[in-house]
Amino acid sequence: MTAVTVRVPAKVNVQLAVGGRRPDGFHDLANVFLAVGLHDLVTAEPADELLITAAGRDVASVPLDATNLAARAAIALAKLHGVEPRVRLHIDKDIPVAGGMAGGSADAAGALLACDTLWGLGTPHDELLSLCAELGSDVPFSFVGGAALGVGRGELLTPLAVGGTFHWVFAAAPGGLSTPAVYRECDRLRREEGAGDTVAEVPAPAADPALLAALREGAAVALGAALANDLQPAALSLRPELRDTLAAGTAAGALAALVSGSGPTCAFLAPDAAAATRIAAELGPAARVAASPAPGATVLP
Ligand SMILES: C[C@](O)(CO)[C@H](O)COP(=O)(O)OP(=O)(O)OC[C@H]1O[C@@H](n2ccc(N)nc2=O)[C@H](O)[C@@H]1O
Ligand SMILES: Nc1ncnc2c1ncn2[C@@H]1O[C@H](COP(=O)(O)OP(=O)(O)OP(=O)(O)O)[C@@H](O)[C@H]1O
After folding, report:
1. Which of 62, 70, 138, 240 could disulfide-pair with 54, CB 3.0 to 4.6 Å?
2. Is 141 helix (H, G, I), strand (E, B) or coil?
3. Where in the chain are the domains?
C-alpha cells in the first residue's frame, strides 16, 4: 500500500453541561456531540521516520513536531504493536485551529485510522477507541462521528439517533482560544458567583431530554430552543466581542446561536439549507455552511 487518506469531521456541542472540577483536573460532562460536514484529510504514506506536513486553513498554527496530535496518535499506535512509526502524515486542514471544533482531535482520529490501515494492523475497534481516549477527551467522538452523548470527561460515548439533517453556519474567529484556559475561566466565574467549582459543589451534569428528542425527531426549531453550552459564559468573558457575532447571526435569521465548545467559533442553526447559505453570506467571507450529522473517520477510496 502506498498511501491512505482518511476524512475526519469537525464537531459542534449541541449541549455541553459542565459539572465540577475533579481531583484529576478534568470536569465531568454531559456532552452531546454532533459531527458536522467540515473536514480535515489525513494522509499516511510510508517514510523512513515520522514526518508531519500540513496545508490549508490556519496552517501556520499547526505544530509540525511530535506535539501534533496526529503524530502522538501514530506513535501511540506503533507502540501498542511494538513497531516503529515510520510514516509521513500530511494534514489538509479545513477545521479551524483552536476553534472549539475539535480540529486536533479529528487529526488524531484520522491518523490512527490511516496508520492502522497503511500498516495493515487491523486493531480492534474497542482498542482504537481506548487509544483515542488516551489522546484526548474529544478524540473518541471524532473517530465515531454521527451524534453521541459523552460522559466522564467526554470520552465515554453512547451513540444517539438523529432523525434528519440539521443545517449550520460556522463563523470562525481569529486567534483561537485555549481549551484549558476556558475551563479555568468557567471555574473562576463559578467561584465568583459563590457557587463553588468542585464535583462536591456543582450539580452533576445531565443530558436534556428535550434536546435528545429534538435530535431524534430531526426537529430544528426544537433543537434551536434547547442548544446549551456551559462554557459559553467563560468564552464570552475571555472574548466579549463574540456577543456581537452571536447577535449578528440571530439577526440574519438563525434559529439559535451558540459558541462551539470552548470557542471562539460561533455556531448558528439555520431553518434549512437555503437559509444557512443566506446567513453565511450576511456574516461575511469567514462564515461556512455545513450539514449534520456527518460520518466519523472514513478511509477514502
Ligand atoms: C471543550 C470540549 O471540546 C467539548 O467537547 C472538550 O471538553 C475538550 O476536549 P479536548 O480538547 O479533547 O480536551 P483534552 O485534551 O482532553 O484536555 C485538555 C484540557 O481541557 C480541560 N478539560 C478537558 C475535558 C474535560 N472534560 N474537562 C477539562 O477540564 C483540562 O484542563 C484538560 O487539561
Ligand atoms: N493536528 C493539529 N491540528 C491543530 N492543532 C493542533 C494539532 N495538533 C496539536 N495542535 C495544538 O492544539 C491546539 C488546539 O487546537 P485544536 O484545533 O485541536 O483546538 P480545538 O478545536 O479548540 O479543540 P477542542 O474543540 O477539542 O477543545 C492548537 O493551538 C495547536 O497548538
Report:
1. 62
2. helix
3. 4-161, 166-292
The DSSP symbol for 61 reads G
| CA-based torsion, 150, 155, 156, 162: positive or negative | positive
| 183-211 average pLDDT score | 96
* CATH number of this structure's domain 166-292: 3.30.70.890
* Confidence check: pLDDT of 1 > 90: no
Of all atoms in ligand 1, which is nearest to the CA of residue 102? Answer: 3
Q: Identify the three-state secondary structure at position 106.
A: helix
107 within ligand 2 shell (Cβ under 6 A): yes
Q: Mutate which of 153, 232, 259, 265 to test ligand 1's pocket (most atoms within 8 Å of Cβ)?
A: 153
Nearest to 40 by CA among 268, 300, 281, 276: 300
pLDDT attached to residue 298: 98
For domain 4-161, which architecture applies? 2-Layer Sandwich (3.30)
Q: Which of 26, 23, 17 is nearest to 200 (CA)?
A: 23
Amino acid letter, residue 170? F
pTM: 0.98
Q: Residue 192: is its pLDDT beyond 90?
A: yes
Pocket of ligand 2 contains residue 260 by CB under 6 Å: no
Nearest CA to ligand 2 atom 14: 98
The CA radius of gyration of the chain, in Å to the nearest whole number, is: 19
Alpha-carbon separation of residue 8 from 42, 65, 180, 295 (angstroms): 8, 21, 23, 8
